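Fold this complex.
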Amino acid sequence: MTKLDDLCAFLSIPSVSAEPQHAKDVEYCADFLVEKLSSLGFSATKHLTEIHPIVVARSPRVEGKPTVLIYGHYDVMPVDPIDEWESPPFTPTIRGGRIYARGASDDKGEIMAHILGAQELIEEDGALPLNVIYLLEGEEERGSYSLHDYLKKPGVLEELACDIIVVSDTGMAAPEVPSFSYGLKGLCCFELEVSGPAMDLHSGIFGGAVANPITTLCEMIATTHDAQRRITIEGFYDGVCEIADWEKDSWRRVPGMSNAELAQLTGVPELQTEQGYSGAECVYARPTFELNGISGGYEGEGSKTVIPTKALAKMSCRLVPGQDPVDIMNKVEAHFRKVCPAGVRMKFTKQHAGDAYMSDPHSPLGKAAQRALELTFGNPPVLVREGGSIPIVAELSKRLGKDALFLGLDLPDARIHSPNENMRLDIFEKGITMAKTLLRLMSDVAP
Amino acid sequence: MTKLDDLCAFLSIPSVSAEPQHAKDVEYCADFLVEKLSSLGFSATKHLTEIHPIVVARSPRVEGKPTVLIYGHYDVMPVDPIDEWESPPFTPTIRGGRIYARGASDDKGEIMAHILGAQELIEEDGALPLNVIYLLEGEEERGSYSLHDYLKKPGVLEELACDIIVVSDTGMAAPEVPSFSYGLKGLCCFELEVSGPAMDLHSGIFGGAVANPITTLCEMIATTHDAQRRITIEGFYDGVCEIADWEKDSWRRVPGMSNAELAQLTGVPELQTEQGYSGAECVYARPTFELNGISGGYEGEGSKTVIPTKALAKMSCRLVPGQDPVDIMNKVEAHFRKVCPAGVRMKFTKQHAGDAYMSDPHSPLGKAAQRALELTFGNPPVLVREGGSIPIVAELSKRLGKDALFLGLDLPDARIHSPNENMRLDIFEKGITMAKTLLRLMSDVAP
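Structure:
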């Protein structure tokens, strides 16, 4: 199997963790990883859970050398809207120097780059120069419940004992500018349903006499931001630190992250940021309150003059260090209960939550990682705080008592979570080199 | 065929005018009416149009007697949500003294009551004592475009020349309290789409830097009402007359229309009305701005942390005499363009519109209609302004230069436009008596 064959085989498995009809595909994907890692001499196990399997693979023990735990997720996001994909999401297709598939940059391209980096190292040097544990789960896109549970089982923290945690599931500024992330945002997801009438009402017979659940939902949502785009939930910003000057200087120089470039990349007419902060500063270090979905009433062709029974909004907040996601959800709920008018009922449903995370980029192992990026890409990495969230990593770091480092390979146009997700093949190749170099450099650091 | 057989046959035809897959059913329904009316001695014609047929049926000419034009629509609303129907919407089912089917009270029960009233009159007296024209269209639920066009064709106004227009497609306060409506609300329907990003965005990678189309749509919608539930579109209330004292007195006494009764009927925790107006006053005589549907982003199970490309709201206004629906739509669009922020794009789509209508309930033919209701139900009718709209009737009245009278048979729990639409069988029977009595009484009024 060539390296590209390995990647294509991995990408072609529809391991969509959120969709029950793909449960067997997700398990098959775990089997694929166990087989691949076993072929490289790893002792690899598929741990079954109540939902999707966790794969743990250990390299043969090398005494006196550090242990690097590489975390990744082999599950992928759902594909909708399917009609916007140019090639089928699970038929890996190469176009213009990129490979297109769901999971190409989140997170399969990265996982396979790490595995093939280890493979090249083994081929070149005969063996790995340090201890490597791969921890690969199948539920990151749906809250990592099983891994959260797994970490509490007796013996597991010992099984996963390491000196550093490495993750490649974050962003990268530009193809020639590697990114080293020292922070992740936290996350909480929740839903607000507003209901009123017992059945759909004719808007002539009852209009004007009852609160319209859709209108009311909109009005409640409209109370969450002020005109300066500051979130007006009481206590929302408690504990949020201001951005350090060195961070502002550093982020001002990240390629592709200027306001003009972000506007062009996203296609919006112009950016809209919290007043006083650039687009990059908001993405990296300001908490957000987003609407992910809204529905209610008649959604088909033409018009239907009803006052519907209910309306639903799916929302999520990206949080920064200092904010507790459970506390935030409580504050959001309290806010909605305060502004909810008497003519409707509301139901607030908390979904998953994960802490924000921040680590020290300048530790010895951190510096080794930065050096590996510099050697691979020919440029020192930019140090950024990731706008995305990987809640399980914060948990992993806390339980194992070790820092996590994020070496991102998702370019801005990778379209993760969107149709036509892709990874550039040159970045995939560099990822392999980066992984190999990382392990070599880290093996020189005392455990 | 018994009277109930006739009604069941009529109700079982899925004449859903908004859905192309039912086009043949709609035409078959027109054929059914032509056949029924022909069997009663009417000269009945199915006029094909570009969309759905118009049925015109004329009784044999009686000189020196008035001509009553009875308007109705044989098309029905779509049935969704289908899973909330207890029996199939096109399998007329009798339960607890009611017949359940889509169209039972809007408008097929009423049309058949009028036709069977004429039939009974013919059976009892040998012939009709005046001139009757049935004008039955198949597009009322989708804007009556073909009938609007038909009225402009040469010779049609002569074909439809009459002394009065009678419509039974409006509300009825309570089973023993007939309603005589002397006004209809106008209507305009429109859509607002807000868009921003060129593709769905990962809410971590881009969140905080771009305007979220769903949030923005909600904020724009929230600018349409103030805390007193007054519509804050500039110029919206221009030309709107205040409610007369005699109307307030009259409406205070309409059974079932008190605030408490409306709340109980609709199932809302409490009413929400424009400040200073009761529920009944809002329904009958205040303009409204309603959200009929909203959609955007992820609407499936669980969560998906995207910033979507766009969000869409379907809206409509019920208008009162003095308001011009096209002018109102222009004002609404101007308002949204004013409040639309720079970080998104908006698209405003005007859909159908129809004028409000008011007539004189105390004309000789009007008084005959009121008397027919009193004789049939044993109580004088309440005089109300209908909250609903039948735009084609305003047009018909204007073009023919004759008043339209509305003798409603939709009870508040008829669930028109909703699942489990029904008509009480005793009301259906009374409707037949009302129709028969109406024709008899009107034949005594000089044309």
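Chain A touches chain B through 98 residues (CB under 8 Å).
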